[in-house]
Amino acid sequence: MAAQPKAIPAEYPSYLKGDPISWLNTIDHKRVGVLYGVSALFFMMLGGIEALLIRIQLFEPNNTFLSAHVYNQVFTMHGTTMIFLVVMPLLLGFAANFLVPLQIGARDVAFPRLNALSFWIFLSGAVFLHMGWFWHHGGLPDAGWFGYANLTERQYTPGMAIDFWDIGLLILGVSTVMTGLNFFTTIVTMRAPGMTYMRMPMFVWSILVTSILILLAFPPLTVGLIFLFMDRFFGTHYYQAVAGATPILWQHLFWLFGHPEVYIMALPAFGMISEIIPTFSRKPLFGYPMMAYSLILIAFLSYGVWGHHMFATGMGPVADATFAITSMLIAIPTGIKIFSWIATVWGGSLKMTTAFYFALGFIVEFTIGGLSGIMHAAVPIDLQQTDSYFVVAHFHYVLFGGVMFAILGAFYYWWPKVTGRMLSEKLGKVQFWLTVIGFNGTFFPMHFLGTWGMPRRIYTYGSGMGWTFWNQFETVSAFILGFAFLLMFINMLRSLRDGEIAPADPWDARTLEWSIPSPPPAFNFVTVPSVSGRDAFWARKYGTGSHGAAAVASAGDPPNGEAEAIHMPEPSFFPIVLAAGLLLCGLGVVVAWWRLIMAGGVILFLSIIGMAFQYPTFGQHTHETEAASGGGGEDLRKVGLWAFIGSESVFFATLIATFMVYKSRSMGGPGADVLEIPLTSFSTFILLMSSLLMVLALAATQRGDKTWQRVWLAGTVLFGLIFLGDQAYEFTSLYHHGLGFTTDLFSQCFFTLVGFHGFHVFIGVVWLSVLLVVSFMDRLPKSRALSVELAGLYWHFVDIVWVVIFTLVYLMQKVKGA
Amino acid sequence: MRARFAQRKLSGLAPLMLALPAVVAGCQRANPPMNTLAPKSDYANWIYSLFVEVTWLDLFVLGIVVVAFVLAVFVFSRRAGEGEAASETHTDMRLELAWTLGPAFILLLIAIPTIRTIFREEPPAPPADSLKVTVIAHQWWWEFRYPGTPIVTANELHIPEHRPVWVSLRSADVIHSFWVPALGGKRDVIPGQVNHMWFIANTPGEYYGQCAEFCGDSHANMRFRVFVDTPAQFAAWEKAQEAPPVQPAAGTRAAKGAAIFANSPCTACHTITGVSKGYIGPNLTHLASRTTIAGGIMKNDPKDLKAWIENPVGLKPGANMPALGLRGPELDDLVAYLGSLK
Q1: Which helix (H) or strand (E) holds A171?
Q2: Which of A148, A727, B49, B188 has the most CB atoms around its CB within 10 Å?
Q3: Å from B177 to nearest chain A CA?
């Protein structure tokens, strides 16, 4: 074995060092990752206990251990918790956060404060979901993790539980989208010099693709939750048949999010496996290009398969057949991955560690889950199996046998890097075998129960159904599985207390995170590494890249002077304060106490302002100068904004699609006839002109012309205000014509869509006004043209959305009416 | 060396060896009443044969993966520190092409019969000569109507064998799902939408069904039964259901119970033809002709009926039927009356 690279001198302390308070204001990606990890482990215990409660209740027929009402809460929270509070935070919040910057040779993520904000908002969302517990009329959410409308309407589920669920998921969604945006920007702009896309570690690839999935998949969920919120609080009828609407809309929106969500959880797991297997086989990953392309293909296909969750709803044979085909196609890239992993092991020199055990276990268990998935793609079979225990078996083989095995493997693999201590391999292998036995014993018999007709989500069953034996078998196995997790916690605690000190590279691994000490210093790399092939660290150690070409070894021991120049951004308390404000706001809404909403709003507003002005170089990211070292040369703020615009496009597309579907189902009400074309034509003209002024403002900034910069910026703001004034006038006059928000389906969709657009214009006006103020303070010179460009990008986007709305909502209505 | 390999192989196969007896034991158990693998209609048969085909193909693929896996881990690799270094092979065009096209071919084998079955099971219009049945799902019980006849019943559906049955599904409140595994796949019951399914039952008997879409507190208690009758049995049943309700002889307990019923809040929700017109709860005109009550979770005998009337919400969480506080002889009279409604 080659010599370890020289360690960084001891005067650079580990990222873990520091007083407890420093964890509250940290913006270090590794610390944020650890915060995510610790929270997720807590929720994992909670979700695991919920799972065991489910299994105890189903141990025998007609059991009365839990009442129906409590059981429904328990299974709802088990699903919601495991997906949103355990798997996603472990994969993205913890693993991606900790590893991506290390693997791409960066000192942090693109937006470190946003990253901390993601965590605190995640935590407040997680707390929020459970708040119903503390209220007399609350209780935990009880409509299932996919909360099918119209059961979730106030008429059928009164009380606050669903309100906490709805707003809790909205809060978690905000956090997740910010995380997706952050990782996307990080990977696109901050890769070490020489790390092209085709040289990135496969885990980084998986996070890149997952980030895109997040950005494009969460908006439909957000829209669906907003509709539910409006139905429950404002009396709209988005999911109620009485008004001509259909509860199926929720299913479309939810699964348009929900299926990509499956891959949001699966792809990072694939990435982890693709790191663990090569390391312990001591071979490069087999078929790297195909592995990367198959990730992209899976992500692409995942948007076209949501209907396979809805075969029983009666979409008709053509839709059923289409979704069947697209769903089956996903098996092809997935198969490529399975066989490539096996080919990676083939001919290797295997080091049989616990991490490798879990990765190998993953291959077999996940294959079983994938194959039962193909059965569900075959529509007629699905009609028997959906909503039965067969489907419960299927997705647990995917999410536990697949994703959780990968997470456990990753846990044993990267724990030394995170903590600087080794875990007990002996205990780990005991845990592995108990997990295999407990997992298969719990979930394999569910295939039998499903084919024998046991529906899912039933709190009890009769004694003559033939289901008793396997339910008892599963419950016993579930406790074995629970015990395996207990061993993991014991292993962790033992390791932290007196585990063996971990070297920088305990596994003789291949990627850059192993080239720095365990645990790493706060700034990760003393000198930013340069990369000339895949498996950069392996190449540095052994002199050959994965192509057999010699790789340039980067300097081992940097000059001390260079290291001292590392400047990391200031920690910030604003993220935690902002998240607390959000929590209070949401709570105020649910309990209908407007003073709480106000208090939360004030905190929210002040912390946003505080965050904006925290750094002396207002509007300019401190990181820009010292951290954006590699990548494609794009400015990270610009990339981030484009990612945001991409996500927003899906948001508006969802609102527009809902409008288009519902306008013709509207019953009664004046409908589109009352829309005033001349007025809105004028508004449209004004908004388009404002885009022109925006272009002029940017041009003036770029040539350093302060006067015209101010004139054009002021003009843009003015035109935006005129547009908003027009809209206010329009809404008022519509109201007087009898078109209120909840009048009919048409009006609620119209006001929601146009209102959300108006809100975006308002945000744009605020943004431009701030720029105008900055301009008058003489702090918007030529060198800061990017700030104007970014505002301009957003402004143009909002204008383009308006053109689409004007065409579809106003003009087409009139044409049809004529 | 070889022995060590063998040992490793055994330990790797341990979970499979554990699962095998379990599978065998599973298959030997008595036929569970909601078994999807015992089809009793043409529709259920189509699904079953597709299931069998896909299961074999799945097992074939799983076999390939497991064999490749075992060879890779236990045969064609070394342990770290043993012998020469790992191979550096990381690409092979022919292999990669094979594991792209191979699965695609297998998927084709699955897709063709799948699509054929989809179009077969979802015809645009009811087959000629079909019996039309309307199913109305309520939280948490099933109402069955036979259009063109006055028959309205609950939780027990009677149909004749060897005749197409065209089922129209409606919901009174939230989404439910109609599922009788022996007769075919699920079809969701969605408010504001009428869904259809059809099948031809081929074996007389009693089949269990249950709501398959989570619909609130008592989702688990929303069960029902389908009785596939011979044509003669079905005709007799139809005739009995179309008859007016039994009038109890004067002076009997049932007659007293009839008076109690007619003057009680029961009438607000329940219909007995000629007596009351409530429509929120099940129609009771021929209650005694049914074998179960309370969404199929209780037997239809005086003891269970009494327990049910005394405490509906306790027995079926969330049930809309209130406890009316009837007790003693009054309750016995009422139960006697209800028990007489053949």
Answers
A1: helix A161-189
A2: B188
A3: 8
- Evaluated on CA atoms B280, B284, B289, B294, the torsion sign reads positive
DSSP secondary-structure letter at B178? E
Domain that residue B237 falls in = 31-75+94-241
Q: Which pLDDT tens digit goes with each residue over A646-703?
A: 999 999 999 999 999 998 888 776 777 788 889 999 999 999 999 999 999 999 999 9
The backbone torsions φ and ψ at residue B229, rounded to the nearest 5 degrees and listed phi first, read -100, 160
pLDDT of residue B123: 85
For the domain that residue A180 is a member of, what is the CATH number?
1.20.210.10
Closest CA to A189 of A100, A69, A98, A296: A100
A73 touches chain B (CB under 8 A): no
CATH of the domain at A800: 1.20.120.80
Q: Tally the domains of chain A.
A: 2
Q: Is B7 on the interface with A (CB under 8 A)?
A: no
Q: Count interface pairs A-B at CB distance under 8 A.
A: 315
Which residues contact residue B263 at a Cβ distance below 8 angstroms, ignoring those fewer than 6 apart? none
Q: Give the separation between CA B72 and CA B78, rounded to whole angstroms.
A: 10
Read off the pLDDT band of A552 (50, 70, 90): very low
Residues with Cβ within 8 Å of residue A720, at least 6 apart in sequence: A687, A690, A761, A764, A765, A768, A795
DSSP 3-state of B298? strand
The C-alpha atoms of residue A85 and residue A78 are separated, in whole angstroms, by: 10
My answer on whether B112 and B218 are in the same domain is yes
A662–chain B Cβ distance below 8 A for any pair: no
Q: B87 in a domain, yes or no? A: no
* 3-state class (DSSP) for residue A7: coil
For A719, residues 6+ apart whose C-beta sits below 8 A from its C-beta are A686, A687, A689, A690, A693
The answer on B283 and B328 residing in a single domain is yes
Q: How many domains does chain B have?
A: 3
Confidence of residue A633 (pLDDT cuts 50, 70, 90): low
Q: Cβ atoms within 10 A of the Cβ of A628, count?
A: 23
CA A77 distance to own-chain centroid:
19
B192: chain A residues, CB-CB within 8 Å: 241-242, 244-247
* B40-60 pLDDT tens trace: 999 999 999 999 999 999 999
Interface test with B, best of A248, A451, A662 (most B CBs within 10 A): A451
Q: Is residue A514 part of a domain?
A: yes
Q: What is the per-residue burial (b if ≥16 Cβ within 10 Å, else e) of A62-87?
A: eeeebebbbbbbbbbbbbbbbbbbbb
Query: Is there a domain that residue B15 lies in?
Result: yes
Positive or negative, the CA dihedral A703, A704, A707, A709 is: positive
> What is the mean predicted confidence (pLDDT) over B267-271?
94
CB–CB contact B80 A350 (8 Å): yes
Q: What is the mean pLDDT of residues A608-618?
A: 70
In a domain, B168, yes or no: yes
User: In the 8-state DSSP scheme, what is residue A521?
Assistant: B
| Residue A448 Cα, gap to closest chain B Cα (Å) | 7
With respect to residue B82, please indicate whether it lies within any of the assigned structural domains.
no
- The tokens for A21 are 């308070």
Structural domain that includes position A317? 33-542
Q: Helix or strand or coil: residue A125?
A: helix
Evaluate whether residue A225 is within a structural domain.
yes
pLDDT at A564: 45
